Amino acid sequence: MSLETLKKAYSWLDHDKDSKVSLDDIKQSCSITDDLEAKTIFQSLCPIGENHIKFEDFCKGVMNFPNLLNSLNQNCIVEHDPSLQNLSSIIEKLFKILDIPFQIQENLDNSAEMIGRELKNIKKRSKDEIIEICQKIFDWTMILKDYNDSLLQGIAHKNTENLFHQEILSKDKERAERNYDLLATEHKKLENSFKELQKIHLELEHEYREVYKNLESMEEKYDYLCKNFEDIKEKNTEKDKFILDLQKKLRITSGLSLIKTDKKTGLTPKGYNYSLTTAVSQIQSNTITPKARGWFNFDRNSADDSVKDQIIKNLKNELMESVNKLYILEQEIVKLEYKNNELIEKIKLMSFKTLSKSDEEEDYKYETLGSLRDEIAVIDLDFLSSRASIKNLKTREIGIQAEVPIHPKKSRYSCFSLFR
């Protein structure tokens, strides 16, 4: 396909002769009634976003789609090549005038020699024959000149086409090189991103294992707290029973002591209270001898009531403190259980989001891991404080058991004998 043919095809497509080919020009020039077919041809030749086809775009489209012109009218792509048919008839007539056999033209050397010999004897011919010979030679020369000009024009067109193709190839090569460089850069970026994602994935996997280990340790601590809570609850129940039994025994012992004292001393309750108050004040002021004080300490049938009441009161206070601390521990265990569930949910969410490769998801994972570390630190602190509280409760429990009063043997002496 020559450049001249492309120009003729483009000029033929330009129906309204405005030096631009539009969709309507293609429909009218090619007599196409199907809009889809016309649109397909137009989009094959026109760049994206353009409303008209330029000659350069037309040439590129034809180069990219060599069979595209087959769908156009064949009248627009008729080649105009020079013909040598007239030259053959002129040579035949010239040979006939010079009396040269026409078959000898197959041998070029003999033909040239015969023509040269006859031209030397041209003076012997008539004027009309000479004029006719000159006319045929002139026609022959002009035909050869036209043929030579057409060949030169064809060569020029071919050179122009080659230059055009070379320009297109160079542009395509530059575009390909730019695309290759861009692809290489993107490939390096993707490789670096992949390496970073691999590194982040390994770090997250390590963090996940640490969090999972901490979660297991927290579950063990939670089980330990629950077990200690149950043990303290059982011991608390035993203490309640012990205090009730002790209160019953104290009531019975106090009543019997009061009855016996009244029988021995013959004092009224008013006198009994006065004597007891006097004895206690003398003990506090150290006016009683050591022996008498010892008798008084071992013979305090009625004075033991206030001591026992004080012990019971202290035990009740200790018990109330234990109950309050147990309630606090119970609340802390509930909080730990709630935080434990939150950690499990967050770890599940983190393991699910580890599969994704989005930058925003990676930032969210870092924030989640930071919050998880803070929460684990808080839970560890709460656990240590709870453990210390349980240890204090155990210590106090041992102390309370040690402070249970031991009833001394009744002395044969009465504290009121000191005042007789």
Automatic annotation (TrEMBL):
Residues 166-235, 312-346 form a coiled coil. The keyword Coiled coil applies. InterPro entries: EF-hand-dom_pair. Keywords: Coiled coil. This is EF-hand domain-containing protein. It comes from Stentor coeruleus.
